[in-house]
Amino acid sequence: MSIILYVSSEGCKNIAIDEIVEKLNVVCQVHRTFNCVEAKGKLVREAGFCIKTFNVESMSYKEKVWNPLEKLLGLNCGFVRKEGEYMGCILNWPNAFRPSACQEC
Predict the structure, then answer these.
(1) Which residue of 9, 12, 95, 104 shows the fewest CB atoms closer than 10 Å?
(2) CATH fold for the domain made of 2-92
(3) How does pLDDT run across 52-65, given as a tens digit for each residue?
(4) Both ends of the chain: CA-CA distance in Å?
């Protein structure tokens, strides 16, 4: 199963895709993106990446993918999608980044 992460920041502007692939050391596809985001009430353009990883479990995603990218790209947050499990802010990902709020889990 794959996990898709969308990120953008000032740190994404001057980094090559091969640096990301090398840093992650997991099976992945990386695509450069250009995004329009809101910052201080204005829309600004930011460079970013769409990073699709394969064979990385949710519970190890933070250690294997997010932590290295956070440092390398100077990230504060990102949008993550794992089909059938979670879609939204990566920092709110239940059981992967924080305890689940679900009483059934």
Answers:
(1) 104
(2) Alpha-Beta Plaits (3.30.70)
(3) 999 999 999 999 99
(4) 21
